[in-house]
């Protein structure tokens, strides 16, 4: 069944993310943000020589040659019943599954646990979503995280802490807000020493934000650096940002930062990527305009290109497509009460069953 847990009014249930904030709600010029920018800039200047050196000399960070360890997929109980989801996952053959669990649903976990149990036997990563309330009430956030971890521990030991932390609509007005959320982790590790915690959780290619989350004086330890790494909304993974950074170079830079950080182990997981689809508003997470969306055939090609580039880079342990069922950017269109597998579904299925991605 679809999740019975209710989302708050600021959540867009079509595109599975918070609604955009108004200009008045954004506080980019606050003193806290200014101080955050100063700290980030100072750290970047101090670390630049080391970053450049390690970027050139970075060794491969992916230890497994098994495609099943590499290809991942995000799912949600908000889309389709448990049986439909498990059937589609079985058809795809994906072994790495990511399940988002909002902190505001910490007391409404039944549907999430049902879906996780139905997919037992696969490797599960639980991503704990934050909100502005999480930042405002750190104690409540800590309690929610602890409860979610305790509830899922029989099923998984892997948890990503936070999501899209550099977007104000997700609750963190600056990276310091997120670092305060991470400071609850040492107690969690002390109670459950075997859990694997991922973080940083920066969306899009914003290396300064990533640097700030990995180089700081806050006390926490991450077992993997997670990045929600999109490329240009309608552009190929081979296209360049700032005239220099194609996908391969973006991955290498983020991996370099993770390898240098004392707050994080040298592991990189891409926990979200996709391309929004043309004419799918309100499900698409942007305007739906042709300049910022692609057709289904192009999405499938870009999906294949992304996975192959990430695999060949040697920098990435896993890449998760977000998500399985959503007509705006997923693999399956559920509109009209039918589950229509789009070209991207078959593209991912082909990759899963490939002998290699070279």
Report on this model:
This protein has helices spanning 31-57, 82-92, 110-118, 132-136, 138-152, 175-182, 185-191, 207-214, 247-260, 296-313, 343-352, and strands spanning 11-12, 17-18, 71-75, 96-102, 123-129, 158-161, 196-203, 224-228, 268-270, 318-321, 332-333, 340-341. With 358 residues, it is an alpha/beta fold. It has one domain (27-58, 67-352): Alpha-Beta Barrel (TIM Barrel).
List key phrases describing it:
358 residues; alpha/beta; TIM Barrel; 8-stranded parallel barrel; 14% strand
Strand and helix layout:
Layout: E1 11-12, E2 17-18, H1 31-57, E3 71-75, H2 82-92, E4 96-102, H3 110-118, E5 123-129, H4 132-136, H5 138-152, E6 158-161, H6 175-182, H7 185-191, E7 196-203, H8 207-214, E8 224-228, H9 247-260, E9 268-270, H10 296-313, E10 318-321, E11 332-333, E12 340-341, H11 343-352
Parallel strand pairs: 3-4, 3-10, 4-5, 5-6, 6-7, 7-8, 8-9, 9-10
Antiparallel strand pairs: 1-2, 11-12
Helix pairs in contact: 1-8, 1-9, 8-9, 9-10, 10-11
| Named CATH architecture | Alpha-Beta Barrel
The global form is globular
Q: Which structural class fits the helix and strand makeup? A: alpha/beta
| Helix count from the secondary structure assignment | 11
Terminal Cα separation, in Å?
39 Å
Strand content: 5-15%
Number of domains: 1
The overall pLDDT, averaged over residues, is 93
Oligomer: single chain
The CATH homologous superfamily is called Glycosidases
Radius of gyration over all CA atoms, rounded: 19 Å
Number of strands: 12
Question: Low-confidence stretches at least 5 residues in length (pLDDT < 50)?
Answer: none
Strands of the widest sheet, in order across it, are 3-4-5-6-7-8-9-10
CATH topology grouping: TIM Barrel
**Regarding CATH, which class?**
Alpha Beta
Helix content: 25-40%
Run of helices and strands: EEHEHEHEHHEHHEHEHEHEEEH
Q: For the report, how would you describe the main beta sheet?
A: 8 strands, parallel, barrel
């Amino acid at each position: 069944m679809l999740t019975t847990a209710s989302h708050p009014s600021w959540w867009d249930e079509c595109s599975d993310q918070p609604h955009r904030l108004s200009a008045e709600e954004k506080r980019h010029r606050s003193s806290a943000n200014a101080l955050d920018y100063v700290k980030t800039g100072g750290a970047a200047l101090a670390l630049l020589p080391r970053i450049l050196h390690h970027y050139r000399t970075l060794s491969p960070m992916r230890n497994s040659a098994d495609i099943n360890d590499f290809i991942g997929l995000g799912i949600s109980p908000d889309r389709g019943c448990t049986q439909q989801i498990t059937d589609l996952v079985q058809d795809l053959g994906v072994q790495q599954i990511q399940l988002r669990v909002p902190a505001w649903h910490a007391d409404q976990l039944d549907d999430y646990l049902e879906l996780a149990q139905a997919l037992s036997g696969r490797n599960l990563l639980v991503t704990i979503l934050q909100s502005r309330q999480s930042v405002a009430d750190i104690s409540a956030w800590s309690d929610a995280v602890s409860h979610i971890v305790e509830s899922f521990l029989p099923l998984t030991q892997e948890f990503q802490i936070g999501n899209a932390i550099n977007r104000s609509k997700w609750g963190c007005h600056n990276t310091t807000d997120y670092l305060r959320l991470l400071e609850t982790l040492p107690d969690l590790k002390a109670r459950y020493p075997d859990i694997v915690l991922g973080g940083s959780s920066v969306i899009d290619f914003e290396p300064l934000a990533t640097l700030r989350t990995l180089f700081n004086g806050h006390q926490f330890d991450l077992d993997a650096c997670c990045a929600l790494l999109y490329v240009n909304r309608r552009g190929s993974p081979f296209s360049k940002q700032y005239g220099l950074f194609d996908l391969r170079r973006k991955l290498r830079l983020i991996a370099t930062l993770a390898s240098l950080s004392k707050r994080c182990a040298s592991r990189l997981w891409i926990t979200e990527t996709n391309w929004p689809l043309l004419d799918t508003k309100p499900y698409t997470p942007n305007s739906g305009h042709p300049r910022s969306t692609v057709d289904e055939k192009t999405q499938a090609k870009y999906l294949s290109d992304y996975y192959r580039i990430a695999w060949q880079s040697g920098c990435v342990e896993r890449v998760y497509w977000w998500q399985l069922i959503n007509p705006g950017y997923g693999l399956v269109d559920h509109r009209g009460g039918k589950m229509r597998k789009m070209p991207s579904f078959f593209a991912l299925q082909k990759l899963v069953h490939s002998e290699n991605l070279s």
